[in-house]
TrEMBL record:
<dbReference type="InterPro" id="IPR029058">
    <property type="entry name" value="AB_hydrolase_fold"/>
</dbReference>
<protein>
    <submittedName>
        <fullName>Serine carboxypeptidase-like 50</fullName>
    </submittedName>
</protein>
<keyword id="KW-0378">Hydrolase</keyword>
<keyword id="KW-0645">Protease</keyword>
<dbReference type="Pfam" id="PF00450">
    <property type="entry name" value="Peptidase_S10"/>
</dbReference>
<dbReference type="InterPro" id="IPR001563">
    <property type="entry name" value="Peptidase_S10"/>
</dbReference>
<keyword id="KW-0732">Signal</keyword>
<feature type="signal peptide">
    <location>
        <begin position="1"/>
        <end position="20"/>
    </location>
</feature>
<dbReference type="GO" id="GO:0004185">
    <property type="term" value="F:serine-type carboxypeptidase activity"/>
</dbReference>
<comment type="similarity">
    <text>Belongs to the peptidase S10 family.</text>
</comment>
<dbReference type="GO" id="GO:0006508">
    <property type="term" value="P:proteolysis"/>
</dbReference>
<keyword id="KW-0121">Carboxypeptidase</keyword>
Length: 117
């Protein structure tokens, strides 16, 4: 039961972060888009850590603004997707870089825009 409540709290926290990502990023995250995409072709990407316990434990998050919104005003209309993946031997970052995220990692470890992300 405690685990289910923790997951619910995490989901609500991530939704709150999605609604105010710029605020969250200014407090605990970093806009990494400029490092990966100096040409500015991909909308902002924020990452950081969300505190989850009083002992200092934190959970890593990555927030990608909608890549399909044609205008900045349309960002708020885009649906929010909460991607939870992971477990022993499979980190969520794998799914972000090889499946759903706006970036893909090439075999030579360079980064390119993911057309399906």
């Amino acid at each position: 039961m405690a685990r289910a409540l923790s997951l619910l709290a995490l989901s609500l926290t991530l939704c709150h972060a999605a609604l105010g990502a710029r605020y969250v990023a200014s407090v605990i995250g970093t806009n990494v888009s400029s490092k990966l995409d100096p040409a500015g072709l991909v909308k902002p990407t924020f990452s950081g850590y969300l505190p989850v316990a009083s002992d200092g434990s934190a959970m890593y998050y990555a927030f990608y603004e909608s890549q399909s919104a044609a205008r900045a005003e349309d960002i708020g209309e885009a649906p929010i997707v909460l991607w939870l993946q992971g477990g022993p031997g499979c980190a969520s970052t794998f799914g972000a870089f090889y499946e759903l995220g706006p970036w893909s990692v090439n075999p030579n470890l360079s980064v390119q825009r993911n057309p399906g992300g």
